[in-house]
Design a protein that fits this description.
Largest sheet: 2 strands, antiparallel
Strand order of the largest sheet: 1-2
Number of helices: 10
Structural class: mainly alpha
Shape: globular
Bound molecules: iron/sulfur cluster
Radius of gyration: 18 Å
Helix content: 40-55%
Strand content: 5-15%
Number of strands: 8
Order of helices and strands: HHEEEHHHEEHEHEHEHH
Length: 243
């Protein structure tokens, strides 16, 4: 009988082959990177009927809903293509003044969060600067990172409890009520294919990575030419490329 690890390994092999064929056919361009990301986004959209283990040992649908954002208070790890996709979305969906206001908020938050690992982020905040505090909804929902899409919980109570005592990362609260390993399959598949094409991916911290993109002209062109514009935006403890 196949274990969860067997299924994850098979999914990774399939997705890595798919991504390699995709870049072989289309090259590594803005368009090919974004169309691969949108494939992953669609895969998460199709997970609406997933059933998750609950702390009580049964299975239940995700408890997640708009306006619930206890999970938006820890580190978000992203990759370069996701940051470009997100920055383009922010640029397209906001007037210049609103864009400048959000960018200033991200920069200010980065001053606080830079270099802090997930447990310190969870214990002392602050919230993700892309969270709309008024309605506790993600302000970049259509372009949110894969890591955010991959966090689903069967237990709102588990998330509330983790947030109330701030003792542990909410993803590890209760008896495994969270599902987030699918995000790792997609990120690693994309990274394996891009490394083979000469574009190794690193794990980046969201705020620092957005600041990096907004600090140079033509950031994606530079990255595609091999310039490491994210060298100061690595996630804590993640200096090696994703493999
Ligand atoms: S993971 Fe938890 S905190 Fe996040 S949306 Fe789902 S139920 Fe809410
Ligand atoms: S990007 Fe959106 S979903 Fe992800 S942590 Fe920030 S506010 Fe939450």
């Amino acid at each position: 009988m196949k274990t969860v690890e067997d299924r994850k390994a098979a999914a990774l092999a399939f997705e890595a082959r798919f991504a390699a064929d995709h870049f072989s056919q289309h090259g590594v361009t803005r368009q090919s990177l974004y169309s691969l990301l949108e494939r992953y986004h669609q895969a998460f959209d199709a997970m609406g009927d997933v059933r998750l283990p609950t702390p009580a040992g049964s299975l239940a649908p995700p408890a997640c809903s708009k306006g619930c954002a206890y999970c938006c208070r820890t580190i978000i790890v992203v990759t370069a293509p996701e940051v470009f996709y997100l920055a383009d979305h922010i640029g397209r969906s906001r007037l210049p003044a609103a864009h400048a206001e959000l960018a200033a908020h991200v920069r200010a938050t980065d001053q606080v969060t830079r270099g802090k690992p997930g447990d310190r982020r969870w214990s002392s905040g602050p919230s993700c600067p892309l969270l709309d505090e008024a309605d506790q909804a993600c302000s970049v929902y259509p372009a949110r990172p894969i890591a955010c899409r991959g966090v689903l919980s069967s237990s709102l109570e588990g998330c509330k409890a983790a947030f109330a005592n701030r003792a542990s990362d909410p993803r590890f609260a209760g008896a495994r009520p969270f599902l987030f390993q699918n995000s790792e399959v997609f990120l690693r598949a994309m990274a394996i294919a891009l490394a083979a094409a000469g574009h190794p991916l690193h794990r980046l911290e969201l705020n620092a990575a957005l600041v990096a993109v907004w600090s140079v002209d033509n950031p994606m062109d530079r990255w595609l030419r091999g310039e490491d514009i994210f060298k100061d935006a690595r996630a804590p403890g993640a200096s090696a490329p994703i493999s």
